[in-house]
Amino acid sequence: MKNVILKTNNLNIGYTISKKSVSICKQINFELYKGELLCLLGRNGSGKSTLLKTMAKMLTPIQGSIEINEENIENLSPKELAKFIAVVLTESIPENSLTVYETIALGRQPYTNWLGKLFDKDINIIQNAMLLTDTNNLANKLIHQLSDGQLQRVMIARALTQDTPIILLDEPTSHLDIHHKINIFKILAKICKETQKTVLISTHEINLALKTSDRLLLIDQEKFKIGKSTDNIIQENLMTIFNSDDIRYDSTSNQFIF
Length: 258
Ligand SMILES: Nc1ncnc2c1ncn2[C@@H]1O[C@H](COP(=O)(O)OP(=O)(O)OP(=O)(O)O)[C@@H](O)[C@H]1O
Prior knowledge:
Layout: E1 4-17, E2 20-28, E3 31-33, E4 37-41, H1 48-55, E5 63-68, E6 71-72, H2 78-81, E7 85-88, H3 100-105, H4 120-132, H5 148-161, E8 166-170, H6 178-195, E9 198-202, H7 206-212, E10 215-220, E11 223-227, H8 232-242, E12 248-250, E13 255-257
Parallel strand pairs: 4-9, 4-10, 7-8, 8-9
Antiparallel strand pairs: 1-2, 1-3, 1-5, 5-6, 10-11, 12-13
Helix pairs in contact: 4-5
InterPro entries: AAA+_ATPase, ABC_transporter-like_ATP-bd, P-loop_NTPase
Protein name: Iron complex transport system ATP-binding protein
GO molecular function: ATP binding; ATP hydrolysis activity
């Protein structure tokens, strides 16, 4: 039997504008299992970031709820939630005056005392995250000295350092070169398998998502679907969302061709 770590109940996501609720997508119902790598796909403006931010309790659902281990996240304090979910957002710019090492070490904050003292276990976790993300050689650089791609790898390292059962990443490879792009997807897939973490990535890298993910989440014009890339319903929706004169989904090779 699958081990459910997160569940949504009739989730309705969106924003409050001039005191009026504007829904982006409704009736979102899914379960995420332990050890899964999932990719969230959709066109620009379809609601990917909105969904991730709602899951991370940075936005309040218009309706419905999200449970982690059967506990409504409404009832979790920020520190409690930080032990379950690590989030990497596109716009999350860390403190500029810190070094890369200090920034990544901040991932241990939910576990350290008020002095922020790190123990051997914390240091091992930090070093392992830096090794996996190829950020060792950047350790002493200041955050503002990094390229966009280097910063993206540092933020992924910080999320890994938080050592949570769930990691949410919003377009984590948008600035990365092809080598690091593939590398990050491979690393995240390996982490899911080896440590039973659940990783959800929003991405425009459709072919990488098709190749590496266990399941896909599709969001489009208020419709939401979840399933394997080989499921008929997912393949039909992939075509509806992304097929155009320039790009076509080929179900035989399970990839988009352009
Ligand atoms: N703070 C906000 N207030 C009101 N509407 C917003 C806000 N942020 C985003 N939106 C709207 O919500 C919709 C979904 O935006 P969202 O950022 O979730 O899309 P996305 O799928 O992540 O897009 P992209 O692929 O371009 O990053 C868009 O129509 C956007 O204009």
